[in-house]
Specification:
Number of helices: 19
Radius of gyration: 25 Å
Largest sheet: none
Length: 348
């Protein structure tokens, strides 16, 4: 234990006056990361490096490699300081953006950088460090959406050496578990609700073109929805109800027709539709031909989804859909015949 503390003291003194060259800085931070990786949580002998490690010359260094190693070291500082937080809120506002930016290396081409970023992610997941973000002002508007965007959009694919899906899901689901269910009352309280910027980032990987460009991120997002379904389902349902009422997501950055949102979320998470799909009955009955045509297109596509149980689970909706075969407008009846042909071809 004595040699370990001496190592931290010596490294801390060097950090107080960081080397000017990038290579020397990287060597120093690598040494520090190696020492810190062996320290157990609850360690109280980290004072020598806590303050030097958050100097602007380090955490705002022009080298992304330096910033990545600094973030890895800081992760170990949080681990070693647990259950106490090693920094005040103002410093945390500098540290967490650094960590989030470092996590971008997970999907990067540099395998050494990806390995270090995964090392950081594992520390964050195991010790639930990012829960501290929830106490920071404005975290729900900026930090949390950015964290979800980074982790859900990383190029997680078969070419990556490191299996990170578990750690991504652990970090994000632990955060989501801290949120309260949405309130029906307009009264102000101290509840922590999922705001639209965060919900946008959770749903974005399910939507084209993201779902096609990064199918692995799509699968991770589906796993997150199921893992945190108790918290997420009422928020997603509220979002879908709002886009049905408005026709588009006016309070969201997601772009598209409400029927596109319904389709993609049904494909990924059909259990979420229980209070949403019955609303589409109105669009099948409305006295506007174009609206009925679009509703037919949506319900028809949903019925073609492999394993779809719409016909049995939403019987009234399905019966109203079938009535469109005798719709008063020929174009609607033709659309139904075209769907029937497709259905028969697909079902064999």
């Amino acid at each position: 234990m004595g040699d370990k503390v001496l190592g931290l003291d010596e490294l801390g003194k060097k950090l107080q006056k960081p080397p000017a060259s990038k290579d020397a800085m990287l060597k120093l931070l690598m040494q520090l990361a190696d020492v810190l990786s062996t320290i157990n949580h609850g360690n109280t002998e980290l004072d020598a490096i806590k303050k030097p490690l958050v100097q602007a010359t380090i955490i705002h260094n022009g080298s992304k490699d330096v910033q990545l190693l600094a973030a890895v070291c800081l992760g170990y500082v949080f681990k070693g300081s647990a259950p106490e937080c090693p920094y005040d809120n103002e410093t945390l506002k500098e540290v967490f953006p650094l960590m989030i930016d470092a996590l971008r290396h997970i999907g990067g081409p540099n395998q050494a950088g990806a390995k270090r970023a995964h090392e950081l992610l594992q520390t964050l997941a195991k010790y639930k460090i990012l829960l501290l973000m929830l106490d920071l002002d404005g975290a729900s508007d900026d930090l949390l959406p950015e964290l979800f965007r980074v982790l859900l959009s990383c190029a997680i694919n078969d070419q990556n050496m490191y299996s990170i899906d578990h750690d991504v899901l652990e970090v994000l689901s632990v955060l989501l578990d801290e949120f309260d269910l949405p309130k029906t009352s307009k009264e102000q309280d101290n509840s922590l609700e999922i705001q639209n910027p965060l919900l946008d980032e959770i749903l974005r990987p399910l939507m084209p073109p993201q779902k096609d460009n990064n199918p692995s991120a799509y699968e991770v997002t589906k796993s997150l929805l199921r893992r945190a379904e108790n918290k997420l389902q009422p928020y997603v349902q509220r979002f879908l109800m709002e886009v049905i009422d408005r026709g588009t997501a006016e309070t969201s950055d997601l772009q598209g027709d409400h029927r596109d949102f319904i389709y993609e979320i049904y494909v990924a998470w059909p259990e979420c539709m229980i209070s949403v799909l019955p609303r589409m009955t109105d669009e099948l009955q409305v006295n506007v031909e174009d609206t009925r045509m679009k509703a037919i297109d949506l319900i028809g596509r949903l019925l073609l989804v492999p394993g779809s149980t719409l016909a049995s689970e939403y019987r009234l909706l399905f019966m109203e859909f079938m009535r469109r075969f005798s719709d008063r407008h020929p174009s609607v009846r033709l659309a139904m015949l075209a769907w029937a042909h497709t259905y028969l071809m697909v079902s064999g």
